[in-house]
Amino acid sequence: MGLPEERGRTGSREQEEAGAQSRVQSWSPPPEVTRSAHVPSLQRYRELHRRSVEEPREFWGDIAKEFYWKTSCPGPFLQYNFDVTKGKIFIEWMKGATTNICYNVLDRIVHEKKLGDKIAFYWEGNEPEETTQITYRELLMQVCRFSNVLQKQGIRKGDRVAIYMPMIPELVVAMLACARLGALHSIVFAGFSAESLCERILDSSCSLLITTDAFYRGEKLVNLKELADEALEKCREKGFPVRCCIVVKHLGRAEMGTSDSPSQSPPIKRPCPDVQGVVHTVGGYMLYVATTFKYVFDFHPEDVFWCTADIGWITGHSYVTYGPLANGATSVLFEGIPTYPDVSRLWSIVDKYKVTKFYTAPTAIRLLMKFGDEPVTRHSRASLQVLGTVGEPINPEAWLWYHRVVGAQRCSIVDTFWQTETGGHMLTPLPGATPMKPGSATFPFFGVSPAILNESGEELEGEAEGYLVFKQPWPGIMRTVYGNHERFEATYFKKFPGYYVTGDGCRRDQDGYYWITGRIDDMLNVSGHLLSTAEVESALVEHEAIAEAAVVGHPHPVKGECLYCFVTLCDGYIFSPTLIEELKKQIREKIGPIATPDYIQNAPGLPKTRSGKIMRRVLRKIAQNDHDLGDTSTVADPTVISQLFNHRCLTIQ
Ligand code: WTA
Cα 289–293–295 angle (5° rounding)? Predict the structure, then answer.
């Protein structure tokens, strides 16, 4: 297949041709899922979607009636300005209405829905035999008790509380206790360093820290309290003593205790100019996570839901805590990792709790794919109905494996595209309605109105590729950047006045399906042809020897930019000149000669954020042997970086 010379962009046509060979087959929703689905057909989805964007006030107003509001909204249900040329950007849903999210996800479920005895969480510890469960009533009691503790420590509405804990029920208790008091929780993933914790405490001037003595992640003991102490010491050195530190004894004994922080002096109020937090509002966020949870996972009362994300990330906030609880769902809360004690852990948990809806990231799927089908098929998985993914474009290869092996071809796959900033899902299939195409996040969720723009900001119709933007607000949209509204406007609204700009590239195919092509800054420009990293990586991963691939642009005297590829091999394969040639051939065939990589490096590990996103920024530097990496505090495993530096490709292959 040759590359059409007349086209400045590769993308749709090549992908379709590749698709004609193997890729873009569409899969109907499984009849077992459709039968009981809230939205059982594409037509019904279209009707609901049309109403949700044409009459957003009525659509969301009806949903809002299901929730508890302390005072209702006195004025208009929705007002907004998305256009910087017309003044300040603002989004107001239900302005003036007041509520409490903790009340809505606990008291309302226990008292109004009468679900007090229902299990809120099955907790599965790092070791398979460590388990507990907690009902909605018990959770409510613990939250009330712990909010009293916080109150005694002086925490009031508007105060910020840092939480640095592993995935244990007390983490959920701590966050909901904050929410109950109207305090803001800043949850710092327990894999972060003392330095990162200190930065985050300072960023939002937290007056209290809640942490844990220690925990195991796989075989590794993490002395969290030591890291917390170090962070508190650093904060003190920087003139910001945290008032109090509460330590949950987890490895020692599971009970809440308080300990004094290194300093008892009151916090110093400091201005926070560098703060970058995304600000969500309680009412809009709650409506949106509850509604997306219900429809995207097609929630039914008997479901057992499991989202593997850590609560420290937005996915955990929205789909471990708030979304499921707002629906009165039963979820699994998992402390461990997918590879401990062995690589079939996830599927053994699925069987143990009869998980019906499962939600994870492409990185986890690719990791497990490396070990073949047997660790999956060893377990029944008969309970599974819906499988979700989030966080990155999922390459069709991984999608097909997820569908064929994990889901035994009888589950719906929901590839959910969204961002921290959007609060909840934006583009996603609905499991009983949407015919799926592997690698496509398919269609917009209710209330979401996407468009694809070209560089000059014109909306493109039909088949097109360009910038993904949203034309009107949905309830879960962020309202500002904490302490920096200008930055909010500049980042999301300035480039194309009138639109929320995601920063992601996107393609729409002839059937109207949306395909995320990756972050705009990850686009490659080879001899004037724009290529998306997702496209090239996907072609590499289709080779049986490749488990994971990351592609970055590298300066080239003639082409401007050329492709530098990092590949992680599957178990049992060897990196060799023959393999390099096969990979090049594969890319030439699937995408076109223009995309032939100049460099392919063996990468036993890739630098990733702790939420599993490949850090292409770091890879670009490695390719150029530039050791000035900037901030690498979010890299999950820093040792992979030096390993990659040591084995750089020096000459064009
Ligand atoms: C990427 C995670 C393709 C995208 C909830 C987005 C995806 C960024 C998908 C947000 C998906 C997330 N397909 N790309 N299904 N989901 N992304 O803020 O680039 O951690 O802008 O939120 O992840 O990442 P964040």
Answer: 120
Q: For residue 339, report the distance from its CA to the centre of ligand 1, in Å.
A: 24
Rounded Cα distance, 618 and 65, in Å? 47
- Compute the distance between CA of residue 442 and CA of residue 296 in angstroms, rounded to an integer: 12
Predicted confidence at residue 413, as pLDDT, reads: 98
Instruction: Take residue 383 and report the two structure tokens written for it.
Output: 């309970």
Q: How far apart are CA 594 and CA 580, in angstroms?
A: 16
The phi, psi pair for 599, rounded to 5°, reads -135, 135
**SS3 category, 48:** helix
- Cα–ligand 1 centroid distance for 425 (angstroms): 10
Kindly give the distance from the C-alpha atom of residue 286 to the centroid of ligand 1, in angstroms, as a whole number: 20
How far is residue 385's CA from residue 21's CA, in Å, rounded to a whole number?
Answer: 28
Closest CA to 406 of 317, 341, 338: 338
Atom of ligand 1 nearest to the CA of 534: 3
- Identify whether the C-beta of residue 549 lies closer than 8 Å to the C-beta of residue 616: no
CA of 563 to the centre of ligand 1 (A): 23
Q: How far is the CA of 208 from the centre of ligand 1 (A)?
A: 31
* pLDDT of amino acid 265: 31
The full DSSP string for 515-561 is EEEEEGGG-EEETTEEE-HHHHHHHHHTSTTEEEEEEEEEEETTTEE
pLDDT at 7: 24
470 CA distance to ligand 1 centroid (A)? 15
259 by DSSP, 3-state: which? strand
> What is the CA(112)–ligand 1 centre distance, in A?
35
Cβ(97)–Cβ(283) below 8 Å: yes
pLDDT in tens, 254-299: 334 444 333 333 333 333 334 478 899 999 999 999 999 999 999 9
- Own/partner contacts of 105-109, CB < 8 Å, gap of 24 or more, are 105/176, 105/286, 105/321, 105/322, 105/325, 105/326, 106/136, 106/139, 106/140, 106/143, 106/176, 106/325, 107/68, 107/140, 108/67, 108/68, 109/136, 109/325, 109/328
Which atom of ligand 1 is closest in space to residue 502's alpha carbon? 21
Global pTM value = 0.86
| Contact (CB, 8 A) for 390 and 363 | no
Give ligand 1 pocket residues (Cβ under 6 A): 314-315, 390-393, 415-420, 441, 502-504, 516, 519, 611
- Name the closest-CA residue to atom 15, ligand 1: 417
pLDDT at residue 12 in the model: 36
* CB contact at 8 A, 390 and 358: no
At residue 588, the 3 state secondary structure works out as helix
Ligand 1 atom index nearest CA of 394: 13
Angstrom distance (rounded) from CA 132 to CA 160 = 30
Q: What SS3 class is residue 503?
A: strand
Low-confidence stretches of the chain (pLDDT beneath 50) = 1-23, 254-275
Nearest residue CA, atom 8 of ligand 1? 419
Contact 260, 285 (CB under 8 A): no
Residue in 418, 426, 517 to alter for ligand 1 test, most ligand atoms within 8 A of Cβ:
418
Closest residue by Cα to atom 6, ligand 1, is: 419
